């Protein structure tokens, strides 16, 4: 929101004899693109700024109205000037631009037909735009060897036009070090020193940043089709709680292969992901195609022909969807008639609507979050803190502009990677501010980066080394208790009038550093505090909140008059799953799996009980022994699931659930923003959204129960409404009615029948090919497209094609702009929010002042004498800690094995050696882990890989020395 | 300390006798370090003023007023922290060998010049960024630096004043572009040697983000006598508008190729005919590059021009480094230009398109023309390519410099180009290097 005093200054410029009002302070290229003028460029990128390398965006600048010749200037390097006269169309400019393309093409191979960039290639677009059609170069093209860069990215250096965007993104923006520009003259080589996996978690963006086909998506290569043959829809990434917007692409093939999802690309969202995604988000999609995918309903054989060795694991057999619905309907009918109890277990990775449907089916009192006690308590705490009117959750642009960042305990590089990328930009905000003093605009990237030696204060307090350490001005490695102390002393220093503040006793943090921190925090106008659920410490979350409140108070007292920006403190709390906060809205802290387990243990009702588990793996949340007991204690387990897991192995009935890109639903991200994702493709087999299975069964159960409907009326009414829902938007409305704080859901997107001038939005581009041929071996006639009951979108080419006409159009395309660079055609100005795009709705949570709750201690025992016990510090990995992405082949191939990190002295104390397998036993469970050594982990702590394929985490905060033993070789 | 004779006309080469380096003792005996003495008596900003008004222009080729350059360094109270002086000794301009001469023969002259410049801008750390191939110069400089340290002329409290300076000798990994001052800064910081965007200018944010001045060897060598003998004396050295003396060199088929210290503004004819002894017997002058490989060809009708920055500029070329390359009537101009373009194409840093991809193309075309495979339309293309590398269209001055001999040769020696094409070969019977030879090696 722009306040009057803050309004953007305007400049009037003349381009080719027409006058325009443009935002002052920007560069001419950005202004021309804002005016929707076709001006070609390569090295410039809205998020990377200008460096003037490619010389492609040249225009003519005239001294005054009498100047007829003018001089060539690079528009990306030229600030717009009020009253200035430019020409894009002047012959000198056009000739020069055509010449630059001609120069670039001297080395570019003519391999468009076999190049995967073809059809969405910025170089193709720019070549056409510049009018270079005839080759005059007669020499040999220079050639390079390509490198193996890991399972994600292909490398084809012969196509390189040396725009330097890859290294500018990879090194300057994302902090990578292993990709570099090598060599000189026309043989500059962008690659690694030697073959190997690109070790930065944002490497996938090279695919989109590269204007041509040097870096392409290797996972896409395996089932490649042209961009114009992909159908797409707006989606939200399901692999963490940041809520990045994505545009997955899908296409069926003629062979009946169910694996239709082909790739994921970025969908611009100004407040969240901007132009970039992390690699888990980009390559994690493969889970939807994985061998573990469930496509048909399956029932456990009652008398298995083969005795399994896996104990409780069952042997399953496919059954028809009608039979599956009928079986679920029987269970529901029994519930309606009061003869069965059905316990619903919801999911933090599934949509609000799915969870709400389950809750509606089983009733609120029988609905449990598919989370253990500790995880749910953390989420509820995050929710309570965010309700406090003194804090707000900052968006990515606000984090990027922060003048101080304090990261408390959360390894955001692995749990909320896109936020870490934003923090990395914040590290440069001081440099940009200094540039401003020198009258250098922020977009003059090379100029700004010359101002070395100036860094934004950035405190990174973490359990172990993190990927942000290289930009931290102060690094603290400590156990959560010490971080709490640090946060509290900082808060105290902010609020205290005077008096001595003593640095907390943390190894590596000396008084001088601490005093500097206090001073920096006092000076900071826009500090951002980042923490989260990662360390599984309620104390830490509370301490982060207390620090944020102190910052808010300090802002109020000191900077109020001088600044119109946000008075609330910026506090970003990272949650674990895509809909963690959404699920937290539907249940209270008691509705967790441990509570359910306790309840089941204590009561012994003769009533048969069904566990209806929706998109949750009990064995990830609970120790196997506890999960086993929970499963053994019920008569029936029914699971709605996307991929097979340890819970589905025990299920009596499995219903195939749609994955995020296959259905429409709403997810609430860590910032409390509700966002809708849409079905990108129809899906294969008998998959459908979980709520549809439930609604179908509810409808069928009515007939089954028939006359003997004796249950209470409330249950009956609930099931009737569930049975009536046909469109997901109806659920959203019902949700909004049931939960007033979720009321904004009703505004999220168009209803299924809200067409635009009678048209739906086409998922397939207007150049989609082969739709009549794709199944020709079975049927020559074109199949009737499946209807979409949830959104006004068509699974066909028919309908609205342009993103400017429909907010649901995720295909980035505009005439002349076939590559992803077309996005600027739908922005008022490069980098600005997309026109008409639904950017989500914040939940209408009631503001409640948070009172720090000292009783909510999470330490299982005092920290006084840790000498014979160890603090468990959960450690995360971008590849390995995501439940669904672990099913993605490329990601799985680079995931480490589960590990435990020890301080060298602790390792010695335990007579263990690094590289050895060790076993940790807790609550009857056993974790086999690879022992690693690190001198940066605090003493008396063990860093344990968390969220890996086995049980996600060790339940306690401490373990005794006796619980650690050498493992199996 | 002996004073300097105000009648001195060759302040740069006054100590040089024979091929050995002038030792510290000999340098001092010849009035050495009296310029520093004078500088230490002055307020730093007065040194800047003096150098500015004396009209000393950068001898690296651009000819920018040295004192003016220094004056952009912000005051210490305005911009606290270190500031740096860098001597650009990365002499790689084709045809230029003047800096090497100074460094090999009279290293203390450079050291004294650097002391004065450092004093003027407030630098306590200085670097000599020397071309990697200049082994002898580096050796002799290292020796001289040690002599100066031992004599207390470098280090803390120099001459018992609140003035200290450390000079580091940094040997370049070798790249023509390092002569561009901002690429030099990147190279010195361990980054890729590519030019930086301006602003900020190095005087404001240079080495490691600190105020930095980069001066050429010869420029710095002008300082000791200027300080010791004063502005009026210095102005009196020049014959025309430009002040001071200059090392002028001549290479090519002249009787005595070499290097001479002469007044600024010495006529070209005098340099070539008198000092270089005129053309070698049997050879006629066809043209010359007045300031090294990256300047426009001038023709014999320009022989009476004065070697002054503005005079040569007005004639359509540049004074550059002041080292002339002479083209005779037995040498193929196309082959000469090809040779130069090969150099520039190889030395392109690879940052901006017209240079990186344009120069190899120029080489490809020239190779074809030289080997008899040229076509008339190639001449159109060459002109186009040269225009694309014109000033303002590229990121730095390398490509415009490369374009200068190319475009001027297309005017001056058009007949030769056409003859190559029409006769399907080189009329001078030079065999062009075979096209298969790799253009560039890393």
From TrEMBL, chain A:
UniProt domain 4Fe-4S Mo/W bis-MGD-type: residue ranges: 230-292
Catalytic reactions on record: a quinone + NADH + 5 H(+)(in) = a quinol + NAD(+) + 4 H(+)(out)
Signal peptide: none
Required cofactor names: [2Fe-2S] cluster; [4Fe-4S] cluster
Record note on quaternary structure: Composed of 13 different subunits. Subunits NuoCD, E, F, and G constitute the peripheral sector of the complex.
Organism for this UniProt entry: Microbulbifer harenosus
All copies of domain 4Fe-4S His(Cys)3-ligated-type, residue ranges: 92-131
SUPFAM superfamilies, A to Z: 2Fe-2S ferredoxin-like, 4Fe-4S ferredoxins, ADC-like, Formate dehydrogenase/DMSO reductase, domains 1-3
Gene3D superfamilies (alphabetical): 3.10.20.740, 3.40.50.740, ADC-like domains, Dimethylsulfoxide Reductase, domain 2
Function, in words: NDH-1 shuttles electrons from NADH, via FMN and iron-sulfur (Fe-S) centers, to quinones in the respiratory chain. Couples the redox reaction to proton translocation (for every two electrons transferred, four hydrogen ions are translocated across the cytoplasmic membrane), and thus conserves the redox energy in a proton gradient.
Homology family: Belongs to the complex I 75 kDa subunit family.
UniProt protein name: NADH-quinone oxidoreductase
Residue ranges annotated for the 2Fe-2S ferredoxin-type domain, each copy included: 9-92
Keyword Repeat attached: no
GO terms for MF: oxidoreductase activity
EC number: 7.1.1.-
Cofactor note: Binds 1 [2Fe-2S] cluster per subunit.
PROSITE patterns assigned to the protein according to its UniProt record, in alphabetical order: 2FE2S_FER_2, 4FE4S_HC3, 4FE4S_MOW_BIS_MGD, COMPLEX1_75K_1, COMPLEX1_75K_2, COMPLEX1_75K_3
Keyword terms of this UniProt record: 2Fe-2S, 4Fe-4S, Iron, Iron-sulfur, Metal-binding, NAD, Oxidoreductase, Quinone, Translocase, Ubiquinone
One Pfam family recorded for the sequence: NADH-G_4Fe-4S_3
UniProtKB/TrEMBL annotation, chain B:
Keywords: 4Fe-4S, Flavoprotein, FMN, Iron, Iron-sulfur, Metal-binding, NAD, Oxidoreductase, Quinone, Translocase
SMART domains associated with the record: NADH_4Fe-4S
Xref: InterPro entries: NADH-UbQ_OxRdtase_51kDa_CS (IPR001949), NADH-UbQ_OxRdtase_suF (IPR011537), Nuo51_FMN-bd (IPR011538), Nuo51_FMN-bd_sf (IPR037225), Nuop51_4Fe4S-bd (IPR019575), Nuop51_4Fe4S-bd_sf (IPR037207), Soluble_ligand-bd (IPR019554)
Recorded GO MF terms: oxidoreductase activity
Superkingdom of origin: Bacteria
A Pfam cross-reference name: Complex1_51K
Reactions this protein catalyses: a quinone + NADH + 5 H(+)(in) = a quinol + NAD(+) + 4 H(+)(out)
The keyword 4Fe-4S appears for this protein: yes
EC numbers, comma separated: 7.1.1.-
Residue ranges of every copy of the NADH-ubiquinone oxidoreductase 51kDa subunit iron-sulphur binding domain listed in the record: 334-379
Keyword Oxidoreductase: yes
Cofactor(s) of this protein: FMN; [4Fe-4S] cluster
Similarity comment: family membership: Belongs to the complex I 51 kDa subunit family.
Protein function: NDH-1 shuttles electrons from NADH, via FMN and iron-sulfur (Fe-S) centers, to quinones in the respiratory chain.
Protein name: NADH-quinone oxidoreductase subunit F
Organism this protein belongs to: Microbulbifer harenosus
């Amino acid at each position: 929101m722009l306040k009057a005093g803050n309004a953007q200054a305007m400049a009037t410029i003349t381009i080719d004899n027409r006058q325009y009002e443009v935002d002052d302070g920007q560069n001419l290229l950005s202004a021309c693109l804002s005016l929707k003028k076709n001006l070609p460029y390569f090295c410039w990128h809205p998020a990377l700024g200008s460096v003037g390398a490619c010389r492609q965006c040249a225009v003519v600048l005239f001294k005054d109205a009498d100047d007829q010749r003018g001089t060539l200037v690079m528009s990306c390097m030229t600030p717009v000037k009020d009253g200035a006269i430019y020409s894009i169309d002047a012959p000198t400019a056009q000739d020069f631009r055509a010449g630059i393309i001609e120069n670039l093409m001297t080395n570019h191979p003519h391999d468009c037909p076999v190049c995967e960039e073809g059809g969405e290639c910025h170089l193709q677009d720019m070549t056409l735009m510049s009018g270079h059609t005839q080759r005059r170069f007669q020499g040999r093209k220079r050639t390079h060897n390509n490198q193996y860069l890991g399972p994600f990215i292909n490398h084809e250096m012969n196509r390189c036009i040396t725009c330097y965007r890859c290294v500018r993104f990879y090194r300057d923006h994302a902090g990578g070090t292993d990709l570099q520009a090598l060599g000189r003259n026309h043989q500059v080589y962008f690659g690694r020193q030697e073959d190997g996996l690109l070790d930065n978690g944002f490497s996938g963006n090279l695919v989109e940043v590269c204007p041509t086909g040097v870096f392409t998506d290797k996972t896409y290569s395996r089932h490649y089709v042209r961009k114009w043959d992909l159908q797409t829809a707006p989606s939200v990434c399901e692999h963490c709680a940041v809520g990045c917007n994505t545009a997955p692409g899908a296409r069926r093939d003629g062979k009946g292969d169910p694996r239709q999802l082909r790739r994921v690309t970025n969908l611009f969202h100004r407040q969240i992901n901007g132009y970039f995604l992390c690699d888990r988000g980009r390559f994690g999609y493969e889970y939807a195609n994985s061998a573990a995918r469930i496509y048909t309903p399956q029932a456990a054989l009652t008398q298995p022909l083969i005795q399994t060795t896996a104990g409780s694991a069952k042997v399953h057999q496919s059954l028809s969807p009608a039979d599956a619905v009928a079986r679920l309907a029987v269970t529901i009918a029994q519930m309606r008639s009061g003869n069965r109890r059905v316990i619903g277990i919801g999911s933090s990775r599934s949509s609000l609507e799915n969870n709400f449907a389950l809750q509606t089916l089983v009733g609120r009192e029988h609905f449990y979050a598919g989370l253990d006690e500790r995880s749910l308590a953390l989420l509820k705490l995050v929710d309570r803190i965010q309700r406090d009117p003194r804090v707000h959750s900052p968006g990515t642009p606000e984090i990027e502009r922060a003048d101080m960042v304090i990261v408390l305990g959360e390894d955001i590089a692995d749990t909320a990677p896109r936020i870490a990328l934003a923090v990395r930009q914040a590290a440069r905000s001081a440099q940009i501010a200094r540039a401003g003093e020198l009258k250098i605009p922020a977009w003059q990237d090379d100029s700004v980066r010359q101002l070395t030696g100036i860094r934004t204060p950035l405190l990174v307090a973490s359990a172990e080394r993190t990927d942000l350490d290289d930009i931290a001005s102060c690094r603290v490695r400590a156990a959560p208790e010490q971080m709490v102390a640090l946060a509290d002393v900082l808060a105290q220093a902010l609020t205290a009038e005077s008096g001595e503040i003593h640095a907390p006793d943390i190894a590596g943090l000396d008084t001088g550093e601490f005093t500097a921190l206090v001073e920096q925090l006092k000076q900071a106008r826009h500090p951002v505090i980042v923490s989260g659920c990662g360390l599984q410490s309620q104390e830490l979350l509370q301490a982060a909140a207390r620090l944020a409140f102190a910052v808010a108070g300090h802002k109020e007292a000191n900077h109020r008059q001088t600044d119109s920006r946000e008075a609330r403190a910026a506090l970003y709390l990272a949650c674990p799953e895509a809909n963690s906060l959404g699920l937290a809205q539907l249940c209270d802290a008691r509705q967790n799996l441990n509570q359910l387990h306790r309840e089941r243990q204590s009561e012994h009702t003769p009533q048969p009980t069904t566990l209806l588990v929706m998109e949750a793996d009990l064995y990830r949340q609970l120790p196997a022994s506890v999960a086993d007991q929970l499963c053994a204690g019920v008569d029936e387990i029914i699971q709605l699931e996307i991929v097979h897991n340890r819970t589905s192995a025990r299920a009596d009935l499995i219903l195939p659930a749609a994955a995020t890109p296959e259905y429409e639903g709403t997810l609430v991200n860590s910032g409390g923003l509700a966002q809708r994702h849409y079905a990108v493709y129809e899906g294969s087999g008998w998959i459908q959204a979980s709520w549809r299975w439930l609604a179908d069964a509810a409808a069928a159960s009515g007939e089954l129960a028939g006359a003997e409907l004796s249950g209470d009326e409330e249950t009956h009414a609930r099931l009737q409404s569930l049975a009536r829902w046909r469109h997901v938007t109806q659920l959203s409305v019902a949700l909004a009615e049931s939960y007033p704080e979720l009321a904004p859901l009703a505004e999220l997107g168009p209803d299924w029948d809200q067409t635009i001038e009678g048209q739906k939005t086409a998922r397939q581009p207007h150049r989609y090919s082969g739709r009549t041929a794709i199944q020709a071996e079975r049927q020559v006639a074109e199949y009737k497209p499946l209807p979409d009951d949830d959104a006004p979108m068509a699974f066909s080419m028919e309908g609205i094609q342009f993103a400017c006409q429909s907010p649901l159009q995720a295909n980035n395309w505009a005439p002349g702009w076939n590559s992803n660079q077309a996005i600027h055609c739908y922005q008022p100005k490069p980098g600005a929010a997309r026109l008409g795009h639904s950017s989500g709705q914040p939940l209408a949570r009631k503001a409640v002042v948070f009172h720090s709750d000292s009783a909510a201690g999470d330490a299982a025992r005092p920290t006084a004498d840790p000498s014979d016990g160890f603090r468990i510090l959960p450690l995360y990995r971008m590849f390995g800690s995501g439940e669904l992405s672990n099913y993605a082949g490329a990601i799985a191939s680079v995931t480490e094995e589960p590990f435990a990190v020890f301080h060298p002295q602790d390792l010695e104390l335990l007579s263990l050696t690094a590289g050895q397998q060790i076993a940790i036993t807790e609550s009857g469970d056993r974790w086999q882990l690879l022992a690693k050594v690190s001198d940066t982990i605090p003493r008396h702590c063990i860093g344990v890989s968390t969220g890996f394929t086995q049980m996600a985490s060790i339940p306690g905060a401490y373990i005794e020395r006796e619980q650690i033993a050498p493992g199996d070789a | 300390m002996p004073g300097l004779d105000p009648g001195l006309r060759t302040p740069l080469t006054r100590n040089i006798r024979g091929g050995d380096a002038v030792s510290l003792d000999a340098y001092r005996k010849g009035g050495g370090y009296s310029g520093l003495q004078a500088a230490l008596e002055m307020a730093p900003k007065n040194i800047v003023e003096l150098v500015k008004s004396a009209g000393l222009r950068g001898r690296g080729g651009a000819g920018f007023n040295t004192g003016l350059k220094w004056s952009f360094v912000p005051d210490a109270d305005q911009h606290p922290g270190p500031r740096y002086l860098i001597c650009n000794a990365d002499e790689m301009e084709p045809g230029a060998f003047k800096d090497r001469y100074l460094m090999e023969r009279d290293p203390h002259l450079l050291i004294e010049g650097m002391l004065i410049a450092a004093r003027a801008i407030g630098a306590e750390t200085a670097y000599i960024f020397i071309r990697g191939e200049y082994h002898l110069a580096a050796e002799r400089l290292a020796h001289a630096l040690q002599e100066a340290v031992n004599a207390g002329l470098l280090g803390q409290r120099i001459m018992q004043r609140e003035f200290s300076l450390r000079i580091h000798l940094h040997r370049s990994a070798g790249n023509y572009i390092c002569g561009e001052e901002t690429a030099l800064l990147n190279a010195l910081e361990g980054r890729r040697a590519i030019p930086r965007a301006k602003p900020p200018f190095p005087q404001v944010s240079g080495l490691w983000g600190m105020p930095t001045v980069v001066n050429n060897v010869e420029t710095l060598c002008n300082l000791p006598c200027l300080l010791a003998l004063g502005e009026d004396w210095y102005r009196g050295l020049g014959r025309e508008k430009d002040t001071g003396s200059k090392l002028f060199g001549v290479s090519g088929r002249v009787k005595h190729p070499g290097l001479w210290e002469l007044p600024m503004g010495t006529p070209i004819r005098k340099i070539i005919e008198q000092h270089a002894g005129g053309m070698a017997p049997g050879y006629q002058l066809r043209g010359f590059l007045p300031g090294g490989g990256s300047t426009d060809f001038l023709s014999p009708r320009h022989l009476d021009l004065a070697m002054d920055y503005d005079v040569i500029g007005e004639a359509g070329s540049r004074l550059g480094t002041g080292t002339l390359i002479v083209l005779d009537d037995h040498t193929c101009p196309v082959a000469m230009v090809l040779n130069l373009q090969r150099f520039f194409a190889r030395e392109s840093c690879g940052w901006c398109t017209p240079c990186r991809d344009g120069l190899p193309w120029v080489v490809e075309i020239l190779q074809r023309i030289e080997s008899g495979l040229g076509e008339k339309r190639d001449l159109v293309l060459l002109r186009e390519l040269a225009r694309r590398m014109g000033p303002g269209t590229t990121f730095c001055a390398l490509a415009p410099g490369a374009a200068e001999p190319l475009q001027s040769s297309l005017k001056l020696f058009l007949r030769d180009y056409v003859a190559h094409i029409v006769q399907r070969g080189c009329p001078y019977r030079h065999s062009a290097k075979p096209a298969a030879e790799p253009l560039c090696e890393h």
